[in-house]
Design a protein that fits this description.
- The protein has 198 residues and is α+β, with helices and mostly antiparallel strands.
- The chain has one domain.
- 25% of the residues lie in helices and 22% in strands.
- It contains four helices and eight strands; from the N terminus they run βααβββββββαα.
- A five-stranded antiparallel beta sheet has the order 1-2-8-4-5, with no helix packed on it. The chain has a three-stranded antiparallel beta sheet with strand order 3-7-6, with no helix packed on it.
- A hairpin with a 6-residue loop joins strand 6 and strand 7.
- Helix 1 crosses helix 3, helix 2 crosses helix 3 and helix 3 packs antiparallel against helix 4.
- The longest helix has 19 residues.
Length: 198
């Protein structure tokens, strides 16, 4: 079988909480009262997504579906987002065209390294498939936990720094001298960055 191309990895269940609150952003921007809460919320959402995309990590537990057309040539499927909390199931279309769920006796999950991975257990092999486009689906959960306090503090601070920057600087063009987000933003995130497997 050929190596799979970059296959889609999509969110199927969004997190139910954010790693920030309006009060957090108000303190970071030094704005009191109910001033422009909508803008702060939008900035908070956007900052969280920007940080997640930069790190290739989901911060709050998020259910994802990683789709492949072929099994890898090796014994390992590298999952593109982390940190991996669990793998719920691996489904595939077998050579007869029937939908199957891969038995957990066939594979194991590495929850500790980044990126996380699914790999064959000893003396196991990937089952035969028909080759349907995206016929293999790895359903997994990525995130530090279900609560905002599960997210590392340095990551939460970086989100607040970015959100506050966007609240204060609302236009793409300004007469004022604009400054980049402080270097501390990238420094805070550097320890969490995931290096993707090729």
């Amino acid at each position: 079988m050929s190596n799979p191309v970059r296959e889609p990895d999509t969110i199927t269940t969004q997190p139910t909480v954010e790693p920030w609150t309006i009060e957090d952003i108000k303190r970071q921007t030094r704005i009191d009262g109910a001033f422009d809460n909508d803008t702060m919320m939008l900035a908070g959402y956007a900052a969280r997504r920007a940080v997640e995309n930069h790190l290739r990590l989901n911060l709050i537990d998020t259910v994802r579906a990683y789709r492949l057309t072929n099994w890898p040539n090796s014994d390992t499927i590298w999952l593109k987002w982390g940190p991996i909390d669990s793998v719920g199931s691996i489904t595939y279309i077998d050579s007869a065209g029937a939908s199957q769920t891969l038995a957990t006796s066939v594979y194991d999950v590495d929850l500790y390294n980044r990126p996380g991975r699914v790999f064959l257990k000893y003396n196991q092999e990937w089952p035969s498939i028909r080759g349907d486009t995206y016929g293999i689906v790895v359903n997994y959960t990525a995130g530090y936990g279900t609560a905002s306090t599960d997210v590392p503090e340095d990551v939460r601070i970086a989100i607040l720094m970015l959100a506050a920057h966007w609240v204060r600087t609302r236009e793409a063009v300004s007469d004022e001298k604009l400054m980049e987000v402080p270097m501390g933003f990238l420094h805070l995130l550097s320890r969490q960055r995931t290096v993707l497997a090729r």
